[in-house]
Structures are given as C-alpha cells and as structure tokens.
Amino acid sequence: MTSATLRILKKRVYSANSSAIRNGQRKKVTIEQLVEQYEKQCGSAKYPLCVYCGREIRGKMLSLDHVVPFAAGGQNEISNIQLVCSRDNRYKRSMSSELYAKLLATLKAAGLLTDFFSTYQPRRGRR
C-alpha cells in the first residue's frame, strides 16, 4: 500500500467517524481496521475491486460504504463497512447494499445501466 493510499484511507476514516458522531453514534472505525479491510478486499490484486461494479478502486475513487446505512439503523463498525468506488457510493445514497445491487441488476438486465449513470445525477451535499 502506498503512502498516498494510506492518506486517503485516513481521510475516509475521519469522515466516517464524523458522520457517525453527527448521527448520534459513538463507535469509531480505526485506521488499522480499515487497512486490514483494504488488504483483505485487495486479495492478490494491487487495488481493491468495487463490490458493485467490479472496477479497480484507485486513489480518490476509494470510498467507504456502510452496508446498512445510518438512515436504516446501521452502525459505524468495520463489519458494516465495505470499500466501493465513489460513483457507486454516491448513487447508492441511503439504500441498503442489497437493494442497490438489485437495482443495478435490474438496470443491467434491461440494458439501461449506462443510461442510468449518464443521466441520473444524485443530490450532493446537505440542503
């Protein structure tokens, strides 16, 4: 793992823990837990693969996804976190991982997956 990747992971841990605190949770994910998760998800490859689209996650494209989102009662713990590309994490929003995977499978089967990503723009930031 490069030092640049480690810096990105540290930023993602800080962000996840800050979000958890805003949502009234006290559990924190540590950088050590996340590094272990990163290495496990990489396997023998140089970069981890996004669990949704299967693309290599490089650099700033690395994002942390809560499998069960805070909005659905998910906790900020390593067992509830997976590494995904930032595009999929942005589109997933507060859906469960299972629901988002079903949505992608349905769109792919209908031949609409590329249209979905090119036309749908999820809301960014807080309003």
- Helix and strand run: HHEEHHH
What is the rounded Rg? 15 Å
* Order of strands in the sheet with most strands: 1-2
Number of strands: 2
CATH class: Alpha Beta
Structural class category: mainly alpha
Portion in helices: 40-55%
* Beta fraction: 5-15%
Describe this structure in words.
- This protein has one domain (3-119): Herpes Virus-1.
- The chain is 46% helix and 8% strand.
- The chain has a two-stranded antiparallel sheet with strand order 1-2.
- The model has no long low-confidence stretch (mean pLDDT 86).
- With 127 residues, it is mainly alpha-helical.
- It has five helices and two strands, in the order ααββααα.
Quick gist of this model?
The relative contact order is 0.14.
Features:
127 residues, mainly alpha, 2 strands, Herpes Virus-1
List the SSEs and their pairings.
Blueprint: H1 3-22, H2 31-42, E1 62-66, E2 81-85, H3 86-92, H4 97-109, H5 113-119
Antiparallel strand pairs: 1-2
